[in-house]
Amino acid sequence: MATEILMPALSPTMEEGTLAKWLVKEGDTVSSGDIMAEIETDKATMEFEAVDEGIIGKILVAEGTEGVKVNTAIAVLVEDGESADDIAEAEPADAQISIDEPAAAAPAAPVEVVTPKEMDIPEGTEMKPTTVREALRDAMAEEMRRSENVFLMGEEVAEYQGAYKISQGLLDEFGAKRVIDTPITEHGFAGIGVGAAFGGLNPIVEFMTFNFAMQAIDQILNSAAKTLYMSGGQMGAPIVFRGPNGAAARVGAQHSQDYAAWYAQIPGLKVVMPYSAADAKGLLKTAIRDPNPVIFLENEILYGQSFDVPVMDDYTLPFGKAKIWREGSDVTIVSFGIGMKYALEAADELAKEGISAEVIDLRTLRPMDMPTVLESVKKTNRCVTVEEGFPVCSIGSYISSRIMTEAFDYLDAPVLNCTGKDVPMPYAANLEKLALTTTKEVMDAVKAVTYR
Amino acid sequence: MAAKKPAKKANVSKDELLQYYKDMLLIRRFEEKAGQLYGMGLIGGFCHLYIGQEAVVVGLEAAAKEGDKRITSYRDHGHMLACGMDPKGVMAELTGREGGYSKGKGGSMHMFSKEKHFYGGHGIVAAQVPLGAGLAFSDKYKGNDNVTFTYFGDGAANQGQVYEAYNMAELWDLPCIFVIENNQYAMGTSTQRSTKSPSYFARGAAYGIEGEEVDGMNVLAVKEAGEKAVAHCRAGKGPYILEIKTYRYRGHSMSDPAKYRTREEVQKIRDERDAIEQVRDMLLTGKHASEDDLKAIDKEIKSVVNEAAEFAKESPEPSLDELYTDIYMEAEA
Predict the structure, then answer these.
(1) In sequence order, which ranges of chain B are alpha helices (DSSP H)?
(2) Alpha helices, DSSP H only, in A165-315?
(3) Contacts of B32 by beta carbon, 8 Å cutoff, 6+ apart
(4) How far apart are the first and last CA of chain B?
């Protein structure tokens, strides 16, 4: 019986991919394990193997097609004597493919809805749609061109081209001396990175995810963050630790933690957690130039999202300067990183219901731009914070405390915190959804503080 | 203790011998003074004395050249004095004063000197080992022929990150000399009670790193081994391991009850193998110095140490606004 061969999901976050190359043609006989095609996901180019035996009856999606959604039929496998045309339900492939649709447009695309009040970019600057992934790579490449002392080390950053493709192309441009694959040994290479920084270099240490940085947290806190102080100002560690942080999708409890609040607690560290591609680029460039240890928390789900990035020779952003994405008068929503997605979506929905929300992206958590938050709260008299991390001793609870201390008389309602739930991340899709914060929770919190 | 044959006498001049004698004696007298000041309440917290181990750092410093780096654990006073840091600044750091190397903010375990390429002073057992490999990485990256002496103890040698560092140091041919100061006790746990594989240098073989055991009570043997290791690293052949068998006369820290070994054990080593006494004998029997000459040296060292102690007592405590300085370095505009 003829069967459809479907576009496979080859990474936890893959929703679509490029059918880079067919290695079989119509009429070829394949058996289980034969490589049929090369598929490019958001993370890598993968070989796609046959599961069943049969003859390639028809290829439905031509090679080179981009944006092929997971589960789209890409070919038909027939048995001897059958014809692919026998399959009535094999719909024309084109109907299911969105070739021109940019990746970011699929799940909420806040940039297109919201026109942020632009404060970082000179008027009239050309803007170019760029994914967060590309922006991070461009930032590293620009800084590596700028200074010979900047190098990248981590697991799979070189020959594999990055576990999440962030370092794609860097090995080719800068060579193996400056783009260094490490063994799987986080504690060790974090320490070597800090030592190299003591020795006058500017390492970028990539953690495949920040979950693995737990193995290295002693080197980050005790060696990198504290040495400047312990040496009476004589020497510190100009180093960037970067990588994806927080929940991706369906990767379970040990791979889904948001460490924002952990690192934000440590004097001596700077902590950055960007949302947009422009901020990712401008802040990573600043991080690499900073003479202090910087924790740069990225998000796997944001990697593939596109935002406008200014076309400028040297686009950097200062730390400690929040960005007001949307002005409003009824409530202040404060967030950072992927929390901004919920904050902006909620603001859009609330606007339809007549509630005007001001949305602030902290961008850096240490230093934290409390003046911008306080000024906004003094105007709106209400505040909701949004993050994916655990609720106990969260960034939101710190902001709440600061607002209570410094703007108590301006508050018309208690500050509410939308956070991840107080549970290890479950695997089941429905439970995982429940464990994270949602746009609806943000909307409910806003309605609670505005008494609607 | 297994001991390597001492270096040939012909290899060392009178001046060198005298210098080693002075350097080792300075460390011993300095540490004795530190112990005294601790007893007087002038030094607080943890204080780990180096008495007994002096030949290790003095021998290895004799093999170093300008630009070579060193990094060690919290038992660090000897390393600092041996690489030429000012005893006054070290002692004033022990008393937590403004004149200390870290302005009083580091303490006994955390001192640094950019000028002398001394990178601390680290309190988490074995954390300095990958850091040392990283310092060596920086020299290799810059393309110079400097080496890094990465000191750690037999206790640290059981930490996993040591082996992560070994693996990468050999993989990338880092010019790092891993110096295991095996004083036979990790706090109060003897090597016999912490491993069935007590030949620490031999563990490097698993990663392809050459190494050897050295008599750490013999400064000339240490120097000779140091020169060999340094030559290996400078030639671009990657890391080298020196397991230096030594002995700590005092407790792990000032609050050590010393229940884990006998007084006789300590006394026997002091009587028979003391590093300073060995050099003293060489100086006297070789007629390089008279009893009077050595007395004069003792006196000179004593006065250096006393001056350091006076400075450490008189230097004021750091000003209160120091609390909030040195947390971040200013970014360049």
Answers:
(1) 14-39, 54-61, 77-82, 87-94, 128-142, 160-171, 191-194, 219-234, 263-273, 275-285, 291-314
(2) 170-174, 186-198, 217-218, 227-230, 260-264, 277-289, 300-303
(3) B51
(4) 57
Domain that holds residue A40: 3-87+94-101
A186 is catalytic: yes
In contact, A377 and A402? CB cutoff 8 Å: no
Task: Identify whether A177 is part of a domain.
Answer: yes
Summarize pLDDT for B255-287 with one digit per residue, the tens: 888 889 999 999 999 999 999 999 999 999 999
- CATH at A134: 3.40.50.970
A301-319: per-residue pLDDT in tens? 999 999 999 999 999 999 9
| CATH number of residue A73's parent domain | 2.40.50.100
pLDDT at A88: 53
Beta strands in A124-269 (DSSP E): 127-131, 150-154, 179-181, 202-206, 240-244
A421 in the same domain as A370: yes
* pLDDT (0 to 100) of residue A92: 47
Last residue of a domain, one of A275, A310, A345: A310
Pair A167, A300 in one domain: yes
Q: How far is B172 from chain A (nearest CA, A)?
A: 10
Give domain status of residue A298, yes or no: yes
- Which residue of A177, A182, A235 is in closest CB contact with B114? A235
Residues B229-264: b if buried by 16+ CB within 10 A, e if exposed: bbebbeeeebbbbbbbbbbbbbbbbbebeeeeeeee
Q: Which of A73, A77, A19 is nearest to A46 (CA)?
A: A19
A188 three-class SS: helix
**B117 backbone dihedrals φ, ψ, rounded to 5°:** 55, 40
Cis? peptide before B121, omega within 30° of 0: yes
The closest of A341, A343, A288 to A317, measured between CA atoms, is A288
CB burial class (10 A; 0-12, 13-18, 19+) of residue B111?
A: buried
Residues A269 and A152 in one domain: yes
d(CA A22, CA B278): 78
> What is the residue extent of each domain of chain B?
9-311
Q: A14 to chain B nearest CA, in Å?
A: 33
- Give me the residues of A, 240-279, that contact B with CB < 8 A: 267-268, 270
Q: Tokens for B281?
A: 């004998």
Q: How many CA atoms within 13 Å lie on the side-chain side of A166?
A: 33
What is the domain-level CATH number for residue A366? 3.40.50.920
Claim to verify: residue A134 and residue A274 sit in the same structural domain: yes
In sequence order, which residues have a C-beta less than 8 Å from that of residue B201 and are 6 or more positions away? B180, B211, B212, B213, B241, B242, B243
Residue A349: helix, strand or coil by DSSP? helix
Rounded to whole angstroms, the Cα distance separating B233 from A452 reads 72
Q: Residues A287, A179: one domain?
A: yes
Task: Give CA–CA dist A363/A317, Å, rounded.
Answer: 10
Residues A430, A370 within the same domain: yes
The span from the CA of B107 to the CA of B113, in Å, is 14
Q: Is the ipTM of this complex over 0.90?
A: yes
What CATH architecture does domain B9-311 belong to?
Answer: 3-Layer(aba) Sandwich (3.40)
Question: A373, A403 in Cβ contact below 8 A?
Answer: yes
Mark whether A68 and A199 lie in a shared domain: no
Q: What is the pLDDT of residues B62-83, one digit of tens each?
A: 999 999 999 999 999 999 999 9
Are A231 and B130 within 8 A, CB to CB?
no
Catalytic, out of A142, A156, A206, A255 = A255
